[in-house]
Amino acid sequence: MPRSSREHPLGAHVEIGWRFARNAWGHGYATESARAALLHAIDDVGLRGIVSYTSADNARSQAVMARLDLVRDPARDFTTLSARGAPWRGLVWVVPTGWPRG
Hints:
Number of domains: 1
CATH architecture: 3-Layer(aba) Sandwich
Distance between the termini: 25 Å
Shape: globular
CATH superfamily: Gcn5-related N-acetyltransferase (GNAT)
Largest sheet: 6 strands, mixed
Radius of gyration: 14 Å
CATH topology: Aminopeptidase
Structural class: alpha+beta
Oligomer: single chain
Number of helices: 2
Helix content: 10-25%
């Protein structure tokens, strides 16, 4: 999903993300659908510089990012306010050049 808001901590960027109902967790849907979306975005649309981010406490999404062979980019991590006004820390992962590996 392209984000063109200059107000976002990452500025304008292209993001890959996922959200599933709890009963869909643990079935590989996030990894499978994100891989297909990334292949389409890179091979068919020609997008580059795609990022993904999640909260520091979201181990499940971080595991998906690792399974996708995304690379952590701590220099781009950010803190912003959540919809409730509380600080929210985003950990940033990037799609590396030459993805997919193997």
